[in-house]
Amino acid sequence: MKKLLFTVLLTVTALTAVAQTYPPKDTPQLEFALQLRVTLGEAFSIDKTQHGRRTVIPITGGTFEGPLLKGTIINGGADYQLNAENRTELEAIYCIKTDDGIYIHVRNRGIIANGKDANGNPTFYFRAAPQFEAPADSRYGWLNDALFICAPEWTPDFKGIVLNVWKVK
Asked: With contact defined as beta carbons under 8 Å apart, do 123 and 115 qualify?
């Protein structure tokens, strides 16, 4: 009986040790990559689709700048949003052109969510993850080999959206 009790106690101790969590050893860091100042056209919506309300916001231009790149946003892209109750999924597809003439494709997917915290206060969440397709043999090839995250910033002096983008290190 003592041997069985000891075995059960040893097994429970081992399982408890396995179930413990420890702080991660390599927490990702963020490094500022660029700021996009995106100008927008007039939005239009398609109501009550099988997936919810679809909103399209034309991207008409703008500028971008960061420590390693600078240029303009090409007219002709769009931000495609799918709206459901208190939540919007977005996918913006557009191109940018660096000051030295290199075109880069951008696909930015994200979530906008309105809700309430544990105390019933309103909350707002807006984050997205842009993916870049740059010529691999260009000085911008590093954009192809990293993950990025962005957050919006609204300023009263700019009619559009400002997106701050960080590289996940």
From this structure: yes
Q: What is the tens place of the pLDDT at every residue in 40-75?
A: 999 999 998 898 899 999 999 999 999 999 999 999
Q: What is the DSSP letter of 119?
A: T
**SS percent in the chain: helix, strand, coil, step 5:** 15, 55, 30
Q: Which residue has the tokens 């740059």?
A: 134
Angle (nearest 5°) at CA 112 between 107 and 57: 55
What tokens appear for 51 in the block? 């997936």
- DSSP letter assigned to residue 169: -
Residues ≥6 apart with Cβ < 8 Å to 76: 59, 94, 95
Q: How far is CA 167 from CA 33, 73, 76, 89, 123, in A?
A: 6, 19, 26, 22, 25
Q: pTM for this one?
A: 0.83
Contact 36, 64 (CB under 8 A): yes
> Tokens in use for 82?
């799918």
- Per-residue pLDDT of 108-122, as tens digits, reads 999 999 999 999 999
For residues 129 and 141, what is the distance between their CA atoms, to the nearest angstrom? 18
